[in-house]
Amino acid sequence: MIKIRIKDIKVRSIAVPIRGKLLRVAGEHPGRNVFTLVEIITDEGVTGYGETGGGGFSLAPLIEKLKDQLIGEDAFNIRKLKWKVASPITATYYNQLLPQIWFPIETALLDIKGKALGVSISNLLGGLLKDSIEVSAYIFPTEDTETVEDLVTNAEMIVRRYGFTSIKLKAGVFKPEHEIDVVKALAEKFPQAVFRIDPNGGWNLSQAINVAKSLNGIRIEYFEDPVWTMEGLRAFKQATGYTVATNTVATRFEDVPNVFLRNAVDVILGDPHWWYGIYGYLELSATLWSLGLELGMHSPSETGIALAAMLHSAAVIQNLGYAIDTHYIYLEDDIIKRPFNIENGRVKVPTEPGLGVEIAESKVEKYENFYRETGDYPYQGQKDIVTIPKLKFRNCKCHV
User: Fold this and answer.
1) Which domain of life does the protein's organism represent (predicted)?
2) What SS3 class is residue 46?
């Protein structure tokens, strides 16, 4: 029996520049995203990589404290190591942070196992069902897209460049009337596209219902968290008949029975980051399949390391019914030697051993230094989002 022992673990924080300030209902991504990298080194010289983050804070201090539990253990015994790091009682205390801590560790372990055996992670998980994954456009308002025309022009450049046929609009930044106009204009520009609308729970129920009824005739894939709370989503779904997706009211396995019994949502947007890694995402897939709920994939933002993990996850699941989300198009740079290409709205799944990506060490060092210079930032960013509409947006119907 093959045994490869964990010799050392390195945890590094990086900040990667993104294209502009991406606005959302509770603030902004201020020109950079923070990621935490995990490098696991074995006594056989095989090294694996994982990554988590995408928000404003590094998780390095928390992951550093787990090293003593992992060093010396068999890197192939992934299920045992998950129990050591992410047991149910630990999950009670760490809640949503714990899966994000476990995800890069598991990814690195799978990367090691695949490299040691000479197979891709997809093959470790049973083999590819699809060799490329459909991706949705992710359209954010920015400081430079103040009007309907500005946003549509920006969306057109993105959609034409990458060939997207599914378009996700980050809503909730402006008043609903403005965003209705945006969706209608986008639908006129892209009549063959389907749309998903995500205000991050920023509308009240009457606003959300009004938006939905105002968009009759437009090809809406789903509304993602149009309102807050599980009961609010149930009421919206009942009132409008639209498909409802969430990545807020169902973030743990314990939540799934509740949304099912209440008939609150149709689609749960999971991802390996929030659902205990790739294996956790497969478990979510099976759970939803048994209940007749649909599966999507959420993106908290990722470099090529986590995107590779997402692609492997998506490639082996039979009931992923929607194009996956990704912020990848907004990265100014990547830390892998061969960045992913999005062509005709799809990304090819890596076939090389392990994750199938090679780390560019010089880039990691560069963005480690950038993180040291810029540091963390509050994900909420409420001060910025209050200031910007009052001073910057001229003619749109903005939140005040």
Assistant:
1) Archaea
2) coil
